[in-house]
Structure formats: C-alpha cells, structure tokens
Amino acid sequence: MDTVVKFKIENGALFVKLNRPEKRNALSPRLIHELLYFFEKKQWDSSIRAIVLSGAGKSFCSGADLKWLADESLFTKKELENLFSLFEAIVSCPLPVVTMVHGCAVGGGLGLLSVSDVVIAEEHTWFRFSETKLGLVPSVIGPFVLRQIGLSRTRFLMLSALSFSATQAQNIGLVHFVGEQDECDTFLKTLLKNFKELDCLAVSKTKKWLNSIYSLPFSQVKKEAVSLISEARKSDSARKRIKDLLNDSSKKTT
Asked: Other C-beta atoms within 10 Å of 182: how many?
C-alpha cells in the first residue's frame, strides 16, 4: 500500500509531503490519521529546527475527499474530531511549521495554512473556502482561520465561497511570501538557514507563549464545531450537492 504521507530530513528540516497527487492531496481519514500521529508524537531529532509541509503533484490540497464526504458511514464525528485534533497538534508543535503551497488550497487545505507559522505560496495558487457550496459549515477549520485572519475577512470569504489569489491571501495574512517557484524555493532555503542560527528552545517557548495569550480555548469549541458540520452533512442539500460534484468529477476522469 502506497504511503499517503512522505517524510525526509534535509538541511536541518523535516519535510512532510502529502502524497495523494491523483486526488490533489484531498484529505481522507487515512491521510488525517498519519498526519495526526506524526504531529502528536513530537519525537524528532534534536538537529531538526523546522517542519516543512507541502503537497505532491499539481496542488497542495483540494480539501476533503469527495468520496469521504459522500460516504456517511465514514464521515463520522470521530473522523472530524481527528481533523480538529490535527489542527490543534500543528498549532502546539514546538517547532516552526512552514507550509509550501502551489496549485490550489481549498477547504480543509486552508485549515492547514491557518495553523502554519509561515506560509509560502507560488504566485498562481488559488484559494477557496468551498464548504457552503457543498451545503456544509466550515466549523472545524473556522476557529483556526478566524484567529489567523480575523472575523471580517473570515466572514466574507466563508460566506461567499469566492476564489482568491495568492496576493490576496498574502494581503489578509494567510500567506507570508508569494513568488515564482524558484523564488519560493530560495526563500525557504533562506528561512531554514535562519532557523538553524536561532536558539531552538527560545523559538519553541516563544511559539508556546504567543499561542497561550492569543488562542481561543479550542476544547470549548471542539464539540460544537464537529456537531455543526456533522449535522450539515446529513441535510438533503449537502447529500445532493456532494453527489452531483462527485458525479461531475467522475465524468471528467473517464
């Protein structure tokens, strides 16, 4: 069985790559489980100064896998809790998390961006909070996005489900650097070199302190967040929209 997440250590960083290129790295229960296990473990070599998250193939992450959404036996509260826990684990990761984005970042993929410490995006990347198009509520990613870009921007982008550009993502604080692929690679190398020169304990303590004084108590919103999207998924509208989109996707691949 092919791995859905690849790991390698290079230049003082641990590179974590989503590896479902044929699905544009859509989030599935297995992919979420593997990422959650990795980030909760927190047992990394002392030489590692940062974690770099990226996606294989043409896109970073296209959101939740449509087949997962379409199967009510798999789209369970437990799996949604795991996704919420993944975002929590990345927020609390003691190492800086740098995310490299290309192609697109949609739905849950934007959740991954919102919990990253640094986001580097290729300039032709596009972004969208797509949940309301599917009759869903972006409640699991909502608390994390909200604290990253604020209420006004979150409200506009989630309610409208409009696509937006890398430059627009940078302007609202969801992305920190935008450039061509070679420029992004150069910036990443500079960033990783800089992390190697810093005191890793001071970096870890700084990240923990910033989270403690700014973040909402996620434990208080977790149950409600999971219930909101779980109930929305059961609606007739969501069932029809997901089924229609899945059928359209199947036709395009045949």
From this structure: 9
CATH class label, 1-180+197-254: alpha beta
- Half-sphere exposure at residue 113, Cβ-oriented, CA atoms within 13 angstroms: 35
Decide: 27 and 34 in contact? Cβ < 8 Å.
no
Residue type present at position 41: K
- Alpha-carbon distance 251 to 254, whole Å? 5
pLDDT score, position 196: 93
DSSP state of 51: E
Q: Ramachandran region of residue 232, left (φ > 0), alpha (ψ -120 to 50) or beta?
A: alpha
Q: DSSP 3-state assignment of 83?
A: helix
**What are the residues facing 15 on neighbouring strands?**
8, 52
Coil, strand or helix at 54: strand
Residue 77 parent element (H or E): helix 77-91
Mean pLDDT of the chain: 93
| 178-214 per-position pLDDT tens digit | 999 999 999 999 999 999 999 888 999 999 888 877 6
Residue 221 burial (10 A CB sphere; 0-12, 13-18, 19+)? middle
Asked if pLDDT for residue 254 goes beyond 70, the answer is no
Give yes or no for a contact between 59 and 127, defined as CB atoms under 8 angstroms apart: no
Name the strand (E) or helix (H) holding 100. strand 97-101
